[in-house]
Fold each of these.
Amino acid sequence: MCRIYTVQLFVAMVVLLRPSVVNSFQPLFVSDGNSTTHRHITQTAILRKTAEVCRDIAASEGREFSLTIDDTLSVSQVQKACSSDISTSILSTVYFHTSIATMYFSNAIVDVVYLLSEEHHFDDETFKGGRDVITTGVSAVKASVKDENYIAGRWTLGQVCHTLQDFYSHSNWVELGNNAPYNSLIKPDQTLTNLAGVDVQTCRNCNGNNCKNNILPDVLQQGLLTSGYFNIFSSKKPTGKCSHGGSLDRTSKRDPVGGINKDKVGSSHGFLHKDAANLAVDATVELLEDIRIAVGDVPFLRLMGLSQSSVLCFVIDTTGSMSDGIAEAKRVSFEIIDSKRGTPQEPSAYILVPFNDPGVGPLTLTTNADIFKERINRLTASGGGDIPELCLSGLQLALTAAPSSSEIFVFTDAPAKDAHLKSTVTALIESSKSEVTFMLTGVLSSRRRRRSSQGVITRALGQSDAQLYRDLAQASGGQSIEVTKADLSMATSVIEDSLASAVVTIFQAVVNPGRNNNFTFTVDDLTQNLTAYVTGDSSLSFKLTSSTGVSQASNETSGPLASITTAGNLRRLRIRTDNETGIWQFSVTSDSPYSVKITGQSSVDFIYNIVEEHGGAHGDFSLKESRPLSGGNATLMVTMTGSNTVTVTDVSLLDDSGPTQVNGSIQACYNFKLCN
């Protein structure tokens, strides 16, 4: 995916948005420009607590920690302050941003999945039920962290935070004069006290649109806790009870008329919106502290996604002919572990999925490098023959376990027996935004079958078999690297490249059928250590030209612009930019299929998510987990990372296999609010 950036904003919505009428802290955006969303509350609390944990770790290690911790923290500030050694690396906030986004998107989905659940929103005085939702969820988060399943932990945590935050908007906790969170909501062993009984009247009619004094004085004087009733279908509620309020709440049209929600500034009790939002932030910080105490500092930071590196994920064919491939996977993984242990580039987790036929797995997912070493060291090559293997089943298992935006490396020399899983695997690649690179050995240059000296047919990948892997690599933004077993060690440098800090893709294209092309890409002063990868057959040639007109041809292994190494169908160029910014050109001559991918290191990057508008009482936009319909509109939420000054002027969707380009209109979202 290309980085296209050149309006001071951190978040952009592509395609003009129409705000919904909602009756909750709005999940992602607001239309009035003054209200606070679940997204803002969640991110603010995460940044505060993460910074506090990093401060405490620094103090225990005798290091300075100079960051001021308040509600104005940015992701970049916290990432930088928490990075104990960034002198030799470029700082990336992508993984931190992505983890936070997972939590606020799961927070937002509560307003879709649990729209009519009183417990999930503390409506209808369901305080015990709401507390059960919170405490059960927190227990699940702690269990997920213990199992090192941080993806599930983040998703559950976001949903728990939604319910906790709604308490301060939907109850009269703020109206009772409380200026601290109700910590009994996160402690299952404490009794919820002073709850208004079902027969206790709590509200009177509002004075027109003025609902400032609609809670009965006796309720306030006795400190009774109540919340508004809410129903979009029926006006029925117990006699004298408060309603939530808002145009979609039918109970608010029945005496006592009006509501008490503080979801936004324009709500029935919107004059207390800021107080409710601030308490919701403090309560979320308390909940995060409860989790931190239970799981420990380092696992807590992993749950928050505070990492400079991606996972190291291998999917390995273990049949008899793969002994060389297994040995190389061991060598490169051990080298990575030993060289990066204790550094910011140490992989955040390790994933291993072996496969053959008929077996797949077991899956190893761990943050312990020694456990990974022991598991991969156990692998041996056995069995196989001329039988296709369950490669896509192994890849599917890895994709379901790996965090978003992972890079997965598949080692095999055999066709996929389970090619029917191609569409399923493609969907997983798209939803997880993971890159898949195939290390293929033994690809035949024609449709001939390979025979040994005794005439026995041996395992080999035909061109049609290899095309399946090429298609999946293309769909993911990865590569299909085809080498001999003897050259495999030269190709695995790609794995080490991927684990460098802050790697971004600057340009990528797949051309099939082959044709001559002149590609251009931009080098800016924010990008360092460019590397180009070209795959294609031996007839392919290319020329790299800098912004000042200096050129180097593909037959120059060491020239003025790059050093070039070749392994199988892969040419790898370590580009020397020498601070030459501007438009560079990459010209390719080939009538056979090929691919070009150019990466670099930069703190500036972006993350994107496809979102969809949903109507109803509790939502505006939520994460869309399926593909947009062909021919229709799609809405992307694009978040820039790593800079407060980089501006977005264009966002386009490009088809990497053809000239198709779809342009979108941009709407800026400042400070987590939708700007009209």
Amino acid sequence: MADTWDNVTIPEFNSLLQMDPYLKQYEKDFRRRYGLFEKRLFLLEEAEGGFDQFTRSYRTFGVNRMADNRLVLREWAPAAEALFLTGDFNGWDNFSHPYEKKEFGKWELCLPPKHDNSPAIEHNTKLKVVVHTKKGERLYRISPWAKYAIQSEKQVIYDWVHWDPPQPYLHIHPRPKKPQSLRIYESHVGIASPDPKVASYTNFTTNVLPRIKDLGYNCIQLMAVMEHAYYASFGYQVTSFFAASSRYGTPEELKQLIDTAHSLDIVVLLDVVHSHASQNTEDGLNSFDGSDSCFFHSPPRGEHALWGSRLFNYSSWEVLRFLLSNLRWWMEEYRFDGFRFDGVTSMMYHHHGIGSMFSGDYSEYFGLQVDEDSLVYLMTANHVLHTLYPDCITIAEDVSGMPAVCRSVAEGGLGFDYRLAMAIPDKWIQSLVGDKSLAFWLMDKEMYTNMSSLIPMTPVIDRGIQLHKMIRLLTHALGGEGYLNFMGNEFGHPEWLDFPRKGNNESYHYARRQYNLLDTDHLRYRQLYDFDRDMNRTEDKYGWLAAPPAFVSAKHEGDKVIVFERGNVLFLLNFHPTRSQTNYRVAVASPGKYTIKLDSDEVQYGGHGRLDHNTEFFTEPQPFNERENSMLVYIPCRTALILGNDDTESCY
């Protein structure tokens, strides 16, 4: 078998090796992965008329209305003995509408229109698939392809609702161009309001989108959109993969949200969960056809020991159809601009990352512990998305550091555009759901009493406000090729995040974002907000996120000073609590006159206003810290500065 992979050619593998020669010893692994990917692509072309058709299977599975108002229903339930459709349309008769068995475990049902030529199933009415198992059980299921599901009052189980509005929302605005610098506002629609309740898509469109635009973010990452029965799962226990969560409103209202974002030149990414699925049976995918497998591996491989959820069988043809079509559905129907793939670490390894520290030794990323079915799925997904939508953005949530995750498939990589650098927030705080916010770690209970600008800052508030700004700027400028902010952090959101659950008496008190704090002008939250806005706007001008990695010329432990250059600007950060640096020599590549472009110590940002913004800093041809030029600067304690060379152009 090894000889088979030796004949595989990875078109641009040499580019990968030039970047990282140490990967040469794992060339056979890369060839095998690429060979499996090529084989899958070939089979798609041969059997389904190419991946364009294959990934539009939402047009043939589930419920679809034809031009003559006939309804065609199709399901994949390989272990079922018989399938029936029941619902409001037939008075909940369990036997009147049987599906016809087709080959490869598929079932089909055609419903002619009514006498008045309207569809047999009306919009916004309830349905169920009745599955008869070989054991003689009768199960009531939601179609895996259901486009809408609701939780009726006082009901635990979600109901499948046929969604086919007579006047669907029509997108008006084109997709924005893919940003060169990605500044992401990570959002959860349900908590996007100060009120202790589940907020709506419409609230987000009306009240949150204008703030995001004002702040200078050019991308929104929407969490918890795919339908999930358990709200406190934060959206990561998905029950209906094709349904936009109804707890926030209708599919049409989500489409309007995305269209409005596009009108503001903001791209929208979906937090897509293809790493696992809820173990719910009555309103989830689990045991859809009565078996312990169907879309998943049989236990134990098909179960996640820590998450209590089901794991997909990525080698299955019909699972591939389901997941790839799911990506296409969100791109086509809702006009999302890309995806953040959740749980990629769990997908890539048979051990799912459980108990693995990932030291960085390359042997950890190759060999039998790697789930190559998952890797091939991710390669295929990225290939499909980037071929059909060249501006599509894909982000991998991977904490393992797997090499080549963000290299193109043609190089032998997985094809992602970005990887979420989750170790960075964990370096500041263990940023978990239920943990205190960064601002609350810094200032804690004093945020309840001492955030007014009408009173002098206490030492705790002063320290917290200055460090909060510095931490954000350092992460923004040095953290990678994109910046992600979780909603509320831009203004130092107090307290913590916790969803209603039994343990907190189903309280919404911490499952909300207190944007109202910004509307009280004398509170210092507005100062932190203004700094975030101007930090993003400065990046927009100089483009450091799209620039090559920074050159760090100083990281002085004693002085608590960090100095680096990126995107033709100079970053100066003095973390010392008491010592301002006067006549402090810093290295710089480009000679010339430098002026202040951003100053965290400005009074409008809650600083002390210790710098004169008319000051000009001139370089000297005096080599310092591996740079040809240097200059003397003044950096107040607990201050971050950006200096720009007025003699050079910005990156853009």
Amino acid sequence: MPQHAVGDKRFTSVAQLLSSSAVPAAENGLEHGPRGSRASPCSERAAVQSPLDPCSQPLCQRQAEKHSCQAAPTVQYVSAGPEDAACGWQGFAPECLQVFNTPKGFLLFLCAASFLQGMTVNGFINTVITSIERRYDLHSYQSGLIASSYDIAACLCLTFVSYFGGSGHKPRWLGWGVLVLGAGSLVFALPHFISGRYEVERDEEVGTCPANRSTMCMDSISDLAHYRLVFMLGQFLHGMGATPLYTLGVTYLDENVKSSYSPVYIAIFYTAAILGPAAGYLIGGTMLNVYVEVGQRTHLTPESPLWVGAWWIGFLGAGVAALLVAVPILGYPQQLPGSQRYVVMRAAETQQLKDHSHKTASNPAFGRTVRDLPLSIWLLLKNPTFILLCLAGATEATLVASMSTFGPKFFEAQFSLSASEAASLFGYLVVPAGGGGTLLGGFLVNRFKLRGPGIIRFCLLCTLTSLLAFLVFFTHCPNVPMAGVTTGYTRSLQPEGYLNLTAACNAHCSCSPEHYSPVCDSNNTMYYSPCHAGCQHTDPASPKVYQGCSCVPTSLGNATAGKCTSSCQRKPLLLVLVFVVIIFTFLSSIPALTATLRCVCDQQRSFALGIQWIVVRTLGSIPGPIAFGWVIDKACLLWQDQCGHQGSCFVYQNAAMSRYMLVVGLAYKGAASWSSFPGWVLGVSRPTCGC
């Protein structure tokens, strides 16, 4: 590829103009001359700049002050043949496929890939993790390691993929990434086919008084637990395959559309990635109502603690779909037809650093070898706007990852919901707030023509608004009374931190703490299990109603299986303000991404996004849920007893949970605000080319 210079400056992209008949001259704003024709730099600028571009006039004025257009050297443009930009595979490029050889066509397949990635990694995994633990005898820390394998793989691959893929054939990197993503889904479903059939004993009633069935405590680890290595391999492949999507995919879109339309295209792409988890929860939850051994009759029901649903079907379907989507992506050219007209327009919005190192980075050959890697990293490290945007993104990613993980748990504790009800309620908030906020953010950047400082100012406004809405955690819903935990068995006041599940009314039952199955009486008081409520048997006409409960202070002495409902009057306020927190958090995602693309030179965009994702994952999405989980565990009132070992938390103190989430949330939101404010100041004061 030839390199063209104007004075002592180089173009940041290869100045090739496509002369295909499929791109009319009127649309490009210039007439294509024959191969080898010459044109002056100023005439080229006047041709490629749109009259609607607000940056065109100031740019030409500043260039005119530096040197005369008549005295400037001429630039030679080599017209590329239509076959260079054709959509196809090797020599096979039928005419019928060229209708998809547009930014909108590429966006369609890229959205399909991001949808499948979100549905698999953020939807199916979170939905089926409990079923996998039950089926393969995994502990919580083992399933946590499976989930984190995705981020570990992404961090290991981001530098390599973003650096070499940024200067390579991006659609091929993307296509191979989607193929690896599909292979990861197929590997994740593999244990179902090689581990044998799932066999269980009959689920007997063990929770009533006078005594529970004895439970054997065994420390031995099942051989099934070794299948966690296969699950980790599947997640590792997921992380490898998804790496190009949010680095090379974003820059490829940005390079092939007008800069003012770029935020809209990227917003649609990210919205598809957000809708994917919603579909994953819906499809995955539906598949869990089907028995894991499809076609086999069983006496178990989905309500049974031994039930395992068909967790593997979603991964099998997603894997095959990813393999199919990868094929058209592999057929796209390195540059879409007509994309060269945006070269100067993008360069006008790029923050140019006035030193020799930046001139080196502007070289089209820069970044193609490992020798350029240290300089590439150094250029990013000395860019304060980029560093501050990375730190702000890491703090926001901490909250997004933490709220995605523990948001359903917060709703479950505050509103006394089941796990499925809490997940559904949280999903109803996240889909419109997250997806709508992402789309709206890209639309606003395009609608108001926001550039550098204006984008960072908008991000700061969104962060401050969500910070104020985070004050919602000042309020909370009171705990539902639970005998022996939050209240005494005789409705007396229970001292805080004092637990006593045994009382005179159930002392003769010899209840086991391993069997947690809450029941609720007519006074809206909850009990640890039917045995702890002193219930002797179930109602023959209604198996979910227990009779003869000696601890229930009513004439009938009945209790119903399940948690008591919460009559919290603050529920609407909590839901509305949580919605505001989510929508304003996602509202700044696309503007912040656009600011990142505009504050680095053209040759470093893919690599900059890769470095940014590494910072976001290592400082945000990986440690964030761990920190939030540790803080939330401090609010636990009642822990699970697994043969003398502490398990998961059954009951949280709602006031303490809200207080701890408020402190941590305000700390991270405050850090994001402090990172955005200096970035705004630097963005205003730094010299820019054009805007």
Amino acid sequence: MPGIDKLPIEETLEDSPQTRSLLGVFEEDATAISNYMNQLYHAMHRIYDAQNELSAATHLTSKLLKEYEKQRFPLGGDDEVMSSTLQQFSKVIDELSSCHAVLSTQLADAMMFPITQFKERDVKEMELITVVVIFSFLDHDAAINRYSRLSKKRENDKVKYEVTEDVYTSRKKQHQTMMHYFCALNTLQYKKKIALLEPLLGYMQAQISFFKMGSENLSKQLEEFLANIGTSVQNVRREMDSDVETMQQTIEDLEVASDPLYMPDPDPTKFPVNRNLTRKAGYLNARNKTGLVSSTWDRQFYFTQGGNLMSQARGDVAGGLAMDIDNCSVMAVDCEDRRYCFQITSFDGKKSSILQAESKKDHEEWICTINNISKQIYLSENPEETAARVNQSALEAVTPSPSFQQRHESLRPAGQSRPPTARTSSSGSLGSESTNLAALSLDSLVAPDTPIQFDIISPVCEDQPGQAKASGQGGRRTNPFGESGGSTKSETEDSILHQLFIVRFLGSMEVKSDDHPDVVYETMRQILAARAIHNIFRMTESHLLVTCDCLKLIDPQTQVTRLTFPLPYVVLYATHQENKRLFGFVLRTSGGRNESNLSSVCYIFESNNEGEKICDSVGLAKQIALHAELDRRASEKQKEIERVKEKQQKELSKQKQIEKDLEEQSRLIAASNRPNQASSEGQFVVLSSSQSEESDLGEEGKKRESEA
């Protein structure tokens, strides 16, 4: 109904259909106003929340800019120009933060308060009156229905009075409610205009006030400051673009140069192995045992630091100690059908680690680097030059020098070299005998063109020259502690001495002399030099069992005896003069290169810093064996004397028995001759054969006593 702005209050009692229809239009309008105002309220509330958030964020930004100078950045955290610039920005932003806070307060008072009042008070009041009007309509309709059902024939004054009173009350209530409802709907049209205009007016006034405060704070000096900062930003951007272009060119160059390195196993001709490293870093696969037969491989970053091998997992800030590799041993091993594996064993043998390299080059470089660190080359002033000099000496050591004297002279520093005519004496353990031996050539110690054996051949496949064929121990499982699981005892169970050491076989070769420790030293030199030249890093680890009878090499996994060296044939043993982990012994056997004569073979081993202990143990075993042999001989001699005495005692007791029997026979004969003395002339006493033999034995016994 266009043109109608009010509900006629005077028509509320009549309650005509036209009035009801007009009321429906006003109710629809009130519902539309309520929905629209709810949406407007949420929109303005978002403005208010955003302003509060902006004020808080601006204040936090100002606070963070003030704290910039207190930060300690790893890169460029001490830039004073940047700190002063940010301090200036902090002051301006702090002032803007204050303006935003004032704006938030004004929005809350001038914008949010009016629309909140309309939503919470006026709209809810209309909703409450609507509910009351509906109930009044229902009560009035129910009262009219009761009044209409009054009986005309059976009139009851009491009932009629009650129904009439009910109609009166409900109609009055409906009339009053309708009047208030019409009044509220008419008033809502005015409140709608107020609720729409007043918040918008407050919003605009608050913004105008905010902009006025901003214009007062932004001065010309600030504009100049901002212009300077803009110029600086442009300069930084140009510098960044130039640096990015340079880095892109570097990336392209590196991609071309690094293309061969993308292969996991690069060509060794293009990338040769560097054997002079004392520091190395890279990723390795580490073997971790998870059970008796199961294991896992973890990829970690390893690097050397002094005499330590460090490991660092991905995501870790710093590396941790993996192993102390001073005086350690390293060798290539076969592990779980994986390539390029090597094992590092600590100097005391208590800790070992198996690692896998990515390529053959890395594999050899890691082994060479750890070997150089194990020799403590990294402590020198120029480690790489020292390592190169040591490796070059190892290469040159294969060609034997003409004499011990020249070899010693070549190893001395240039400033301490002596004249060629000067003689040097060996520092061996035999004193003056070493002086005479120093003049001997190497050919008198090591046979020329002697082949070197670098691995232990299984006794099942081939008899070793140092293994006693009569021992019967080849390939049988042996308990190194002398404990037997069966009824048959091994040869070592009765031995007084049982000492077990972890050793690694370096090699063996035939020697021509076995009467001086220099034989062992020269054999060590040649075997180590040959290993360095031929890149042989693999070493067979075994358990060396020292007893009073023999030396045994036992497989640590299967407890099978690999080699047996009878102790009487071990004629010489010694440790290296400088590297106490190296030791060797000479075994004198029959056969060898010349089957008609005795031959001597020198065996060289590497231990876990226990070379002197092993030699002392072998010496103790030989002393115990010597004393045991002397005791055995003395015991046999004593037993022989006791057997002779026992035999003489038996003969003496037998002689006494014969004499006693003869005396008894004599008495019997004398007793039988007394009654017949007269008739005894011309008669003879006839002895039996046994008596005659006893008498002969008695005479022989007397002769032996007289001879004794």
